[in-house]
Amino acid sequence: MLSLALAACGDDNDSSSAASRAESTASGAGTSGSTTEARATGPVTVFAAASLTEAFTEIGAQFEGADPEADLTFNFAASSALVRQITEGAPADVYASADEANMTKLVDASGAAGEPQVFARNPLEIIVQPGNPKGITGLADLANSGVVFVTCAPEVPIGRYTADALQKAGVTATPASYEENVKAVATKVTLGEADAGVVYATDVAAAGASAEGVTIPEDHNVVASYPVATTSEAPNAEGAAAFVELVLSDDGQAVLEEFGFAAP
Fold this sequence. Notes:
Blueprint: H1 15-28, E1 42-49, H2 53-66, E2 70-77, H3 79-87, E3 94-96, H4 100-108, E4 112-128, E5 149-152, H5 157-169, E6 177-179, H6 182-190, E7 196-200, H7 201-207, E8 212-215, E9 223-231, H8 237-248, H9 250-258
Helix pairs in contact: 1-8, 2-9, 3-4
């Protein structure tokens, strides 16, 4: 599996060298390779957008399978919450966002090591209950009386994307509640506590038989771009760079495609 090459005779305490290697991987890794000689070790903490839960969990299993001395931990949440945690000092090795705006916040705060890389894209879809009992066929139906529609606050990527899609469609829909992240929107619908919400296409797929999806036309849709970067204060810069390299690799891209993400 992919991981960053470790110097055979290097000083374990040479943090500047590790940061330099992490920056090199973050700024220059591509998607063409699928093998490497290096191995990651120690704790690696990945802060990732909630919509990446299933795909990154699978990528994480591959990472630890290839590098059994690595101890991978995920923090899945709204991208806005994650970047705030990192800039406030939370120890994170990798940050993967569901939008470029929140990644820019990390870059502007000098929190990214190297140039972030877009590794996936994801269109929007309306999630409804099985059988679509409210007969929702498009964004306009979210404004119908009797339809309980939920979303997220505008600072959360899916909240902003939803607002953009509604604006494109010329629809004004008042949400019944603002959820913490996109997974919470999907859960509200699958539990029958809401009739509909706008989520990523991958979230509809992840819900399986617990939900159905309603396609949003291309001219009203928004396609999310997902960037990833190692953090400038990564406690494990080598491990961080190895994980980013795996995400960008053919193996990582195959997993993302399996879970419904589009290529960058």
